[in-house]
Amino acid sequence: MFFALKTTSLVMPAAFADIADMAAIHRRCFARGWSASELQALLQDKFVESFVLRRTSLRIKDQVVGFVLARSVLDESEILTIAVDPDHQNSGGGRQLMNEMIRHLYGNRVAKLFLEVDESNKAALSLYSSLGFSKVGERKGYYHNDDGDPSLAWIMQVEPFGDHHPHHSQTRQ
C-alpha cells in the first residue's frame, strides 16, 4: 500500500523558542545571516511583528521552516527579512508568510508596506509582484553578491488598503 506524504503548514507568531531555528534558516538563506541575539533583540522590539511557518509531515514534526519580520512606525511598515529554509523553498511558504503578515498589518491599519530586494532575486521579485508590490526606488550597493561585488536593491511598496489587495473586500470611494 502507498500512503502519500501529507504535509500541513501553519503560520503563527514567532516565539523565543523559535530563535535558534530562525537564525539557522537565515544563515542558510543569506551571505550575512542574523545571529540568535540579533533576532532576539528584534523579537523584543515592540514595533516588530514576527511570524514563523511550521510544517509537519510523516518525516518532520512541527518544524520551523521559515519566518518573516516587519517593523511598523506610525502607519507604515517595512519587511525586515523573510527567509524559507532552502529545503522547503518553492512550495508556497514565502507566499503564506507574506499573506499572513499583510493580513496582520492590514488589520493594524498600516497604509504602506515597503521592502528591499536584490534585483537579481527573480523568485522574490515574482512573489512580491504577484502580491501587489511595485518598484518605487533603488539603493545602489545595498547587497553584496557571493563574490563580494555590490548589487542593486529595489525598494518595493504595496498599499494594503488599495483596491488590488487580495484581502480587501471594499472599494475606495
Rg over CA atoms: 17 Å
Q: Got a strand count?
A: 7
Strand ordering within the main sheet = 1-2-3-4-5-7-6
Range of strand content: 35-45%
Counting DSSP H or I runs of 4 or more residues, the number of helices is 4
SSE succession: EHHEEEHEHEE
Overall pLDDT level:
86
The description of the largest β-sheet is: 7 strands, mixed
Q: Which structural category fits the helices and strands?
A: alpha+beta
Secondary structure: helix percent: 25-40%
**End-to-end gap:** 58 Å
Tell me the overall shape: globular
| Poorly predicted residue ranges | 162-173
SSE inventory with pairings:
Elements: E1 8-13, H1 19-29, H2 36-44, E2 48-56, E3 63-73, E4 76-84, H3 93-107, E5 112-118, H4 122-130, E6 134-144, E7 150-158
Parallel strand pairs: 4-5
Antiparallel strand pairs: 1-2, 2-3, 3-4, 5-7, 6-7
Helix pairs in contact: 1-2
What does this structure look like?
The protein has four helices and seven strands. With 173 residues, it is α+β, with helices and mostly antiparallel strands. It has a seven-stranded mixed β-sheet with strand order 1-2-3-4-5-7-6, sandwiched between helices. Strand 3 and strand 4 form a beta hairpin. Helix 1 crosses helix 2.
